[in-house]
Amino acid sequence: MHQELNVEERLCSISEKAQLAMLLDILTPKPGNVHRYKDHHDTRLIHFAASIARLAHPIYQAARWGYQRNKSSQGPSKLGELTKLALQASMKPHRKNTLLGTILLIIPLAVAAGYEIPRPKWSPSTLRQSLSHILHQSSIDDAIELIRSLQIANPGGGKPKTPHWTEESQAFDFQSPRTIEAIRREKYTLLDLQALAAPFDSIAEEYTTDFSYTFDILYPRFIEALNQHPRVEDAVLISYLWALGQRPDTFIQRKVGPDVAQQVTNKAHKLHNRILELPEDRWQKELIVFDEYLRSEGSRLNPGTTADLLSAAVFLALLLDKIKLIF
Length: 327
Description:
single chain; mainly alpha
């Protein structure tokens, strides 16, 4: 009985840490994103907050399935179904797609964390091993549920403005009414679908590399920023600017093309380096200029994928108890 209570506490803790990671993301004033000082014309901070509030149980369910999967690998994979349930819950308060990209990253991590519960001490490598195990067991049904999730969310960006968008990509486009039939016919798993999208979607690429960017690059960078900036919002902001300055945001790239996306990256890189030379009380003026630039074309230059990836890295830091107090 005591052991079962401990399991329940740890499952609930996984869900709470995922929600906190998402709250830290939306509250930090990151240029171009919705945050506590700025809304977008069609999406406000309250929409994100309402979505996060609805995700407690779906993330708990994901963690519990991971825990059960560790005890017995019998039965079908539920990764796609769990992702769809989380998405539907997040959209229920307002019917807006606020967190699709974040959910696609958070749910597998929550499953992996649940899988790890029997282990007394966690590390990035053990969590990633469990994550890899879960991802590589994905099924055709998971792929179908992913397509259904995309059809529900109807994410923006249109057809990617990239040569990687091939005839095969078109055949498995979520907007096509024949995609689910094609998945069944060709026996495509969730990982197969993500491999098709990986060249023009950084979140899909994470699935094909066992979340290599999250674990190997962004998480260590966030921990470094956290060591230098005790206020967690400052560490989130610095990590965001660094990440955006390292490679183009694929959400921007799909909407406006690689050239403009690279311009955003170049500006972010320069701003990150300049910010590090200034005291924190002088950051605001520099950030406002960049924020206004990113908002100059509505939400077309919103670095949404960069924010999603950072949420995953912050969630990983919370799972590993790297953030103990919020200063």
